Amino acid sequence: MSKAIAVFGSTGTIGENTLQLIRDYSSLFHVDCLIAGKNIERLRGQISEFHPPFVSVERAEDADRLRREFPSLDVGFGEEGLKVAAERPSSEVVVMGIVGFTALAPTLSAARAGKTIALANKESLVVAGTLVKQEALRHGAKILPVDSEHNALFQLLEGRPRGDVRSLVLTASGGPLLRRPELPLEDVTPAIAIKHPNWKMGPKISVDSATLMNKGLELIEACFLFDFSPNDIEVWIHPQSIIHGAIWLHDNSCLAQLSKPDMKSSIGYAMHYPARLDGPIPKLTFKDMAQLEFLEPDTIRFPCLELAREALKLGPSHLIALNAANEVAVAKFLEGKLLFPQIPQVIRRVLERHQARAVDSLNTLFEIDRESRHASC
Ligand code: MG
Q1: Residue 238 and residue 63: Cα distance in Å, rounded?
Q2: Distance of CA 146 to the CA centre of its chain
Q3: CA 148 to ligand 1 centroid distance, Å
Q4: Is the dihedral of CA 314, 315, 317, 320 positive or negative?
Q5: pLDDT tens digit string along 281-303?
Q6: Which residues line ion ligand 1, judged by CB < 5 Å?
Q7: Nearest-CA neighbor of 153 among 141, 163, 165?
């Protein structure tokens, strides 16, 4: 029996890689539903190829169009469509490839429906890590991280007594600006910022990678996923993106997970878990590993990683503020309304003005998110 996969963000990078795996391993997987935003043209092609019984899109008018074009297809839209897709009894694995805060509600729905969640979205853990974990535990859902670093750490930590592990190591490629110290940050255009050297990713995460906020969000993600304090998580710039994560044990042994930088590795791991796919990506050779470099992050030029560490210390409501400010600042930068070095400035300002408060309900969480977005404008 092949596994039914719900693909959230099907027209994005994670979605397209997931569909490539379903294409390559058609005896193991099939599409249960596709969830996309506004890229209807690409979605149309995916519907024709994979024949899912259900799709959901962002806008009602796009849903109407698709209903006319594919009369036998069940089509949802908006928040309700996301919820329906996350809870479908027929799906076994939910691949959560939606970017940003929007993924929180369907991630919680999937957790409450007891799904296996291949979680590529980091923002949902940043703003509601404790809640997402609690709901997964309560309803027997399993969260398998797809972010390459966390997927590596998951593989290294699984089945290992927590007491054996001293600390975690997150690697970061350093992004497109690492080798360009001569370039004034004011001159960094969206085109430069989204040109990632190793990974093919969407615009938001590529800008996050250039500012190092991606690693900041990943640090927070790792604290929640693995119950480690930020002080026990090292970050190293590793431009080749071959070592995705490592753990230090108490006897000072270091274990690492290595592969070519290809998202199909961690997505395939999560989709087929606990079994392993036969060759979803080309094998690494020792020649590929001949010149691995490791550098300390430049936290002066790129302050976002430290902003994330500060927000972690200040508490959960500051994490929501951090994420909201970052999403707004990155969107404005991509629209040409903000300069690159203003991204951390906006985030710092929002964090400084934010008054810590208890995040005791989902309503409060959404309220803090809304206020912080407003404060970021
Ligand atoms: Mg990553």
Answers
A1: 43
A2: 7
A3: 5
A4: positive
A5: 999 999 999 999 999 999 999 99
A6: 147-149
A7: 165
